[in-house]
Design brief:
single chain; 174 residues; mainly alpha
């Protein structure tokens, strides 16, 4: 089933899934991922709504698909639903996907608000935030945030690329 999904053979993937006697969250996620990758967010939402349970991977896959399609309306719906289901203790992976989605959809201020409300952040979350700011020419904010980051986590190669990109896009090359 996963192979069919990865190869874009969504009909075959759906057929195998339909023939399964027992479906679990993993099999549902394989179908969700395949549908979102090869069809669209609307079709993915239909699969998502049929799922009996969701985990942070299912939520993240939905949010990433919204970011990829630049569909901030559906992305906002997923965020609200996540908050309703998980409460304010959103998993780092889901929170990072929400930050990335808002940044990619041009809602940088909303991305910053979500980021600031995250109870825990790792280097991936920081990189998503810094890259989103860089993408929209907010180099000064990136430079100001960087010292806070190194108090929380250790920067990696992607962090430095985001900082250099932010400086470049903002004319902060001195």
């Amino acid at each position: 089933m996963d192979m069919y999904g990865k190869c874009g053979m969504v009909g075959e993937m759906r057929w195998v899934f339909g023939e399964m006697k027992e479906k679990n969250v993993v099999s549902w996620i394989v179908v969700l991922d395949g549908v979102l990758k090869w069809e669209d967010v609307r079709s993915g939402r239909l699969v998502f709504d049929e799922m009996l349970e969701w985990n942070e991977i299912a939520w993240t896959i939905m949010i990433v698909a919204c970011a990829r399609s630049v569909d901030v309306v559906k992305g906002r719906w997923v965020q609200v639903y996540v908050l309703k289901m998980m409460g304010m203790e959103v998993e780092i992976m889901v929170g990072t996907a929400i930050v990335d989605m808002y940044a990619k959809c041009g809602r940088v201020d909303t991305a910053v608000k979500v980021f600031e409300c995250m109870p825990r952040r790792n280097v991936v979350a920081w990189n998503a935030m810094l890259s989103g700011l860089a993408m929209h020419g907010r180099g000064r904010v990136v430079v100001d945030m960087f010292p806070r980051m190194i108090e929380e986590v250790r920067p990696d190669d992607l962090t430095f690329i985001a900082v250099l990109s932010a400086c470049s896009h903002s004319g902060l090359i001195d």
